[in-house]
Amino acid sequence: MSRKNACGFRALLALLCGCLLATARADDGIAPLLQQADAYRLAEKNALVDVEVDVLRHGEVDKQRQYAVYVKPGRRSLVVMKTPIEIGQKVLMLGEQFWLLMPDTQRPLRITASQKLLGEAAVGDVASLTWSEDYDGTLAGEEAIDGRPCLHLSLQARRPVTYSRIELWLDKASREPVKADFFVGSDKRAKEARFELSHLAGRRRVTRMVLIDNLQAGKQTVVRYLAFREHQLGDESFNPAALVRRVAVE
How many Å apart are CA 8 and CA 2, to the nearest integer? Predict the structure, then answer.
């Protein structure tokens, strides 16, 4: 993976619900709904998540990568590249700051959450993002997506994150994410996402996310969350200096 493309981590989406078509800030009652929705895709407080990312061109796999994502409270995440051609590369997230370590460098490089990991998967798509903490929202209406009655939420970022705005559709009954449109700072739609859920590690979760490229017809990026398990990685691994020391991780 080139240095330009070898980044990515922090994830996407935001959820909530309401009965009336009214404007509301997250702290006015939408926050609890976003917290409920967060539970469908966020890992446990201390966890290790196995992630696989495929780039598809006209339905055929063009590239495939594997990642181990370590999650810790306090908005801390560490992505370890597992594919042989990327061995030695790591991405660290501390709050809103990101670092990349390449095997041939002596110090981590500062990167942004929007830099690409692979295909359409950005840093913010693969790691941990709490919708209830990062977005305020309004209920834009109700509509059916693929025959499912959904709530349409319009979300605005309250801090610098991967996407400045998200249009999100949640299943009206379960609050599960169904579809999302992601917008960057220029208010340009960057990509569309579709979500699939199943039971994994004891509860219902988002286990597959399909990112559709709005600019290149026939190109999709599929992010699969293969395993979630509790894992206590020491605090020493969550600092830039530890990347250089190549702290041992699984």
Answer: 12
**What are the structural domain ranges in the chain?**
26-244
Tokens for 1?
């993976």
- φ, ψ of residue 171 to 5 degrees: the values are -55, 130
From 150, 125, 164, select the one nearest 16 (Cα to Cα): 150
Closest among 38, 35, 54, 8 to 208, alpha carbons compared: 54
Helices (H) and strands (E) in the chain, counts: 4, 15
Closest listed residue to residue 176, CA positions, set 219, 217, 221, 145: 145
Distance (Å, rounded) from C-alpha 6 to C-alpha 79? 11
Structure tokens at 6: 């070898």
Q: Are 165 and 156 in contact (CB under 8 A)?
A: yes
CATH superfamily ID and name for 26-244: Lipoprotein localisation LolA/LolB/LppX (2.50.20.10)
Mode of pairing for the β-strands spanning 177-183 and 76-81:
unpaired
pLDDT tens for each residue of 41-82: 876 678 899 999 998 988 889 899 999 999 888 888 899 999
CA of 147: how far to CAs of 18, 144, 168, 171, 178, in Å? 20, 5, 16, 10, 11
Report the 10 Å Cβ neighbour count for 146: 9
pTM above 0.85, yes or no: no
How far is residue 58's CA from residue 105's CA, in Å, rounded to a whole number? 36
Residue 13: pLDDT above 50?
A: no
Do 228 and 47 touch, CB atoms closer than 8 A?
yes
Q: What's the full length of the chain, in residues?
A: 250
Q: How many CB atoms are closer than 10 A to CB 135?
A: 29
**Amino acid sitting at position 173:** A
